[in-house]
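Please fill in the sequence for the structure shown.

STRUCTURE ENCODING:
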């Protein structure tokens, strides 16, 4: 396999992985991040990014807006813009902006982890991490890795 064909296969895989994130992010938003309740015998309520946002919009609009930007808009716009760069529909100079969007998206995962740690430390309730938290975190991390690899590919091309 020649270097040129390896490069085109690498680009195709980067594009495919990035396009998969456009499907996986919305799934992660609706997937249960955690199960929480006052006492385990009363059952636990599943909390997702969307159910958390619904609750926030009713109680704290400013915080809901911030979480909407970090959890939904930043990672999705970053993934969409990266796809545009990969398909040469957007200049590669936009990668600097994508790094900032990636950092904003990672801040959201940190906040969720912080809330879980604080809630467990209080001791009044029960919190169990659910599969959606791992999916959401994996999507954010995959997006960061894909942007780094795409930037390297663009510099080499």
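FILLED IN BY: designer on duty
SEQUENCE:
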């Amino acid at each position: 396999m020649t270097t040129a064909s390896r490069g085109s296969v690498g680009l195709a895989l980067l594009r495919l992985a990035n396009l998969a994130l456009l499907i996986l992010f919305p799934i992660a938003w609706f997937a249960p991040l955690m199960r929480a309740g006052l006492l385990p015998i009363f059952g636990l309520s599943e909390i997702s990014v969307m159910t958390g946002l619904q609750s926030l919009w009713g109680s704290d609009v400013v915080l809901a807006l911030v979480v909407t930007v970090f959890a939904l808009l930043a990672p999705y716009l970053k993934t969409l813009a990266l796809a545009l760069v990969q398909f040469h529909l957007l200049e590669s100079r936009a990668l600097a902006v994508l790094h900032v969007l990636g950092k904003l998206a990672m801040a959201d995962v940190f906040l969720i982890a912080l809330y879980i740690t604080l809630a467990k430390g209080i001791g009044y309730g029960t919190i169990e991490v659910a599969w959606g938290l791992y999916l959401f975190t994996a999507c954010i991390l995959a997006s960061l890795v894909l942007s780094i690899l795409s930037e390297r590919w663009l510099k080499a091309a």
